[in-house]
Structure formats: structure tokens, C-alpha cells
């Protein structure tokens, strides 16, 4: 978000001109400021940001630990700045049964390997 590299119209207008630059809410140009402060798609999540910065000042959001924590929560819950604009599905924790040592480790030797030694 700080670098401007994200799934937003402002980025697309310069780097991916084939993509739409308007916001799904109807705003002509989708920008990070619009998404954080005004976009109706994220109204239900904006209070998360206001806890760190009453007026959602970008320097307070990106420049303080409290602001970054609020932004992280806002992004996770809202799905803002993702390609779909929707929250990502929860990922399952890795399963022990997929660990490599269960299969003899990463370095399983076979007869073909002997030729190279």
C-alpha cells in the first residue's frame, strides 16, 4: 500500500492499462485513499482504522505501530487491496502427515544417484 503497488485503478492506469481503473462502488478512479477513506464497500470496516487515526490520515496509519496494526486488521477482515476485493479464505495449518521425514527425508537415495558419485 505504501509503494502504491496493489490491485487498484491508480496502479493499473500506469502499469496495467488493460485493467479497469474504476472502483466497483462506482468511483471513477480507484485509489488507496478512496479505498481507505470513502469506498462504500468497506464502510463496515473503517472503524478499525479510525481507532488508530480518527480522520484516517495516511501518515498515521502507515507511520505508527498502532496504525499498522489497524491497517493489518482492516485488510484481513475487509479484503481491501486484494484482486477480488473480498477477504481471503482462511488457510488450514500445515498437517504433520505431510512432513518430509515421514517419507524418508528430502534426500531419498536411489540407484541412479550412485552413478554420479
Automatic annotation (TrEMBL):
This is Uncharacterized protein. It comes from Exidia glandulosa HHB12029. Residues 84-117 are annotated as: Disordered. Residues 99-117 have a biased composition (Acidic residues). Residues 85-98 have a biased composition (Basic and acidic residues).
Amino acid at each position: 500500500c505504501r509503494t502504491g503497488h496493489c490491485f487498484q485503478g491508480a496502479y493499473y492506469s500506469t502499469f496495467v492499462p488493460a485493467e479497469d481503473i474504476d472502483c466497483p462502488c462506482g468511483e471513477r478512479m480507484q485509489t488507496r485513499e478512496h479505498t481507505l477513506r470513502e469506498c462504500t464497500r468497506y464502510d463496515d470496516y473503517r472503524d478499525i482504522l479510525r481507532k488508530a487515526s480518527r480522520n484516517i490520515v495516511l501518515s498515521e496509519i502507515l507511520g505508527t505501530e498502532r496504525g499498522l496494526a489497524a491497517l493489518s486488521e482492516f485488510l484481513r477482515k475487509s479484503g481491501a487491496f486484494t484482486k477480488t476485493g473480498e477477504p481471503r479464505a482462511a488457510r488450514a495449518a500445515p498437517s504433520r502427515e505431510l512432513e518430509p521425514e515421514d517419507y524418508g527425508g528430502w534426500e531419498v537415495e536411489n540407484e541412479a544417484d550412485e552413478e554420479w558419485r
